[in-house]
Amino acid sequence: MVHEYVRIGAFVVTPYLGGLAGNLFVKNAYKTWYSNELRKPSWGPPSWIFGPVWTALYTSMGYASYLVWKETEGTDNAMVPLGLYGGQLALNWAWTPIFFGYRKFGLATVEAIAMLGTIGACTVSFYNENQTAGYLMIPYFAWVAFASVLNFTIWRLNRGRKFKD
Q1: For every residue of 130-153, which 3-state class applies, written as one string?
Q2: What tens digit of pLDDT does each residue of 131-145 get?
Q3: Fewer CB within 10 Å of terminal CB in the chain, N or C?
């Protein structure tokens, strides 16, 4: 049983790896241009909400991936859902440096839409293997849909602007 908890822990921790690396970009940006110069819509969430939201989302998606792995262990059925999971996770991790590191808001919007599509496909694929895993992905899909609209709006509000470091 202890061994199983270690496996669960490994699956749950995996999404945080890229999130923690991306946090380096966020911290620098937040201290400078993001807080002081970036035009944001009035309906955007307060900055303090992102940490708790991503904590919940990374935990739920990590556990969902464990459930699918456990359900499909030793079969070919794992390839599509876990491949989609890896793809959306790579897109998730890439978004932060694009937006916060390179400040390419238009590219980040396109990337977020690609991520949203991949999350949608992953969610359906997870559901087909384990319904609970599919349900665990729904809040993540909803948040990224909202974040994509927010990203697009920020791009539109800041098009052509240059930011100081």
Answers
A1: CHHHHHHHHHHHHHHHHHHHHHHH
A2: 999 999 999 999 999
A3: N
